Amino acid sequence: MYIHISEIGDKVGKKVLLRGWVHRKRGSGKIIFIVLRDHSGIVQVSLKKESLSDKKWEIAEGIAVESSISVEGEVTEDKRAPTGYEILASEIHLVSNSEPYPITEYQSTELLLDKRHLWLRSAKMTKIMKVRSAVFRHTRHFLDSNGFFEITPPLITGAAGESGADMFTVDYFGKDAYLTESSQLYSEAMIYSLEKVYSFAPSFRAEKSRTVKHLAEYWHLEPEMAYYDLNMTMELIENLISGIISSLLKEDAELAEQAGADKKVLLHIKPPFKRITYEKAIDTLNGKGKSLSWGDDFGVEEEKLLTENEKAPIFVTHWPKEIKPFYMPINPEDDRTVLCADLQAPAGHGEIVGGSERIWRYADATKRFKEVEKAKGIKFNMENYSWYLDLLRYGSVPHAGFGMGMERVIKWLLNLDHIRDAIPFPRMINRISP
Ligand code: 4AD
Ligand code: MG
């Protein structure tokens, strides 16, 4: 029976069967050393000419880096070996030989992106992809155990779900359709039967932003909750994020640290997160030398300045209505702002969550659509939104929700320089292959 490399510690002095890929190879003449890799780790395998048949020795000599092989051998403890163990091979089987591997030790970022399908085998990407899988699992687990139902939205849509400015157009049987930029409106539709729901799906943004935090296709978690207000929503967001972190530290701490997480910092991320209003944030930024006016949005520079000394994420609440979408309700205490909150990750990693209460009275919604049209000089095609407005006509309830960008969260947790490494096959303005 095959075992994984991570399990050999219990098998010292015993024979084991392993399979994987040739990570490195050296030696010749009478002894060959292979570093074998499987998903769980690496181990040195030594192959001695005297212990193998001539045919097997010939195979061992011909094996190239990245070939897939299986070996049988005895586990020995060896302090000099990279992982403390060594396999003394008695059998080797070549599953499939590798052609000369195109990735060698020092390679440009561009080459590694061109060869992404192969670079995903690197130790760095393997660890990040495992953390990604864990973060997705903990996210679902948190919501599933807090009364949420997972729903599946359509990804091809007939209209904008957000600003509409950055959508990819697709030919839908001769008509224009779009790749969804947000599944929120569909999440909203489902609260009227399921009350607390989340969609977990890709969103597409044709933003021409060449930054370290923008992807053209990213994984978007979009929970929507009947009867929630802004405060309840912020509490849910901070509990979700600290819940994901505590599960990660409980189940995958070593892996997360190897992938770049700073455990000491993450251990202190506990609710409540700091909350400041947009107005206060503008004052803070202007105090740091910016000259922002009311209504200005934040760019990379502002996000960095605002969060440079933070250890945990901070909420920036009550933004000007002009820079937020049509579905956010006006703040009854200050009609210049809407009832919303963005969550900014520490150290300039950027906005990881955007959330708000939703307009839930039909009359308020139709009024707000008109205001936005006037303010932005645009015209909504109301036919596209009639189904959405129906939700407010047939037994509407107060509700709220948010969207969390999974790759932004992973970038922050693992201190990655670029968001592209948080996803296996990044889609960016200048890249769609592999
Ligand atoms: O702030 P956004 O645009 O909000 C919405 O789409 C709402 N409809 C969400 C909702 O309330 N259901 O996007 C939400 C989050 C951002 O905070 C950010 O984390 C992420 O999605 N995001 C991106 N991530 C990677 N690449 C991009 N181009 C992103 N644009 C947004
Ligand atoms: Mg946003």
- Name the poorly predicted regions: none
- What is the helix content? 25-40%
| Biggest β-sheet: strands ordered side by side in the sheet | 6-10-11-18-17-16-13-12
Distance between the termini: 35 Å
| Structural class by secondary-structure content | alpha+beta
Oligomer: single chain
* Small molecules bound: 4-amino-1,4-dioxobutan-2-aminium adenosine-5'-monophosphate, magnesium ion
**Residue fraction in strands:** 25-35%
CATH topology of the largest domain: BirA Bifunctional Protein, domain 2
The CATH superfamily of the largest domain turns out to be Bira Bifunctional Protein, Domain 2
Work out the radius of gyration.
27 Å
Q: What general outline do the C-alpha atoms trace?
A: elongated
On the 0 to 100 scale, the average pLDDT is: 95
Return the CATH class of the largest domain: Alpha Beta
- Write down how many β-strands occur, each being a DSSP E stretch of 2 or more residues: 18
Count of discrete alpha- or pi-helical segments spanning 4 or more residues: 12
Major beta sheet, specifics? 8 strands, mixed
Which CATH-level-2 architecture of the largest domain? 2-Layer Sandwich
Overall tally of structural domains: 2
N-to-C SSE series?
EEEHEEHHHEEEEHEEHHEHHEEEEEHHEH
